[in-house]
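Friendly challenge for the regulars: who can give me the structure tokens for this chain first? No prize, just bragging rights.
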Amino acid sequence: MAGPREGNLEAPTRHPLDWRNPEFYDEGKLFHEMERVFDICHGCRRCVSLCQSFPVLFDLVDESESMEVDGVAKADYWKVVDQCYLCDLCYMTKCPYVPPHEWNLDFPHLMLRAKAVRHSREGANFRDRTLTSTDMMGGLIANPVVAPIVNAANRSEKLREALDRAIGIHPKAWTPEYTTKTLRSRLAQLPADTQGEAAGRTTGKVALFATCFMNANEPAPGEDLVAVFAHNGIPVTIAQKEKCCGMPKLELGDLEAVKRARDENIPVLAKLVDEGWDLTALVPSCVLMFKQELPLMFPDDPDVQKVRAAFFDPFEYLMLRHREGKLKTDFKQGLGKVAYHAACHQRVQNIGPKTKEILSLIPDTELETIERCSGHDGTYAVKSEFHDLAMKIVKPVVSRVEQAQPDHISSDCAMAGHHIAHARAKGDQPEHPITLLRKAYGV
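First reply, four minutes later:
Bragging rights claimed.
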């Protein structure tokens, strides 16, 4: 008689998130499931190098009286939850027990459930509410009057120390500057109605979801995307309006805020799909939100599923076009050596290394690909209680960059790229892969 399989040889599948079920918020049932999953993790320990959640868990077990999970106090389970920033790498790249394996282990969504339980009971503090209200902050600050003042304040050592004492934002953490002219305003004159040339799964015309970060903090890659796509005969428009995709609130466990973001974004994006536009965004976390998390939260919403099917990572899109002979390879200059960090939320989209594949087409270009989490996560690395751990997580990535001695540092996750460059402390700045592609084209 066959017993349980030791591992899983099938592709991982994800179950819908049962977040509307009252039992989802039952703390007793949550702890029961956490104990079951932690016991499996304790017996495996393959994920120990991914993030701080697993070392914390294993230390709790090893330091308990029984040296098993049953010896760990339930109150200490929250120490594991606090370290998880939902990068999804354990689920997608390491764990042998994810469904369809019979043990049905989904560590990130279990941590998400725990965060949701705590948020439903306690809410969030001022710092965490503010850090995750990215569209609100961008709307208030990204303008010619306020942005220079805030940027100067973020560079002030004394003010950063005061911010650390007041709300717990680490004084040495990298924080993004705000632009005086948002991406949405820069791209306001893009055409709203134009024809594209279909190829394979693509319609050949793309609507850009600007994202909070690219809109309010770093708009240049958005302009680079428009130039690269135009060079390849792909018209680009911009979504008429948008809210934050909801990923920061998801990581906080505020699922009702995620629903509110869905309610604002999905009708706009679904209308664009109905008009023949494909969708893209330059922040992998935002792409993942529309491709995976919202469809798992709202599996019966046809518009959510419609948007999911039309949403592409930008380099995935270009590679799909390349397979149909629709990508130009008339590159004007090589890039030399590129230390390329593969972002976690891009890696877990199950699309393969599309950025690497596109950049590898450029002559006189050598890629040093680094597939390891940077530990930034948008908010984790800036919080005082986690910053030192984030710097520990990024250290192996920095070591790989140092060994490469590259001409360029690049990551699909702009915040990860900045965190890596900040940890190097050499003053060099990361460049988004779309920026590098524009340079190679010379457009």
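Residues 372 and 397 are 7 Å apart (CA to CA). The chain has a mean pLDDT of 93. Your move, everyone else.
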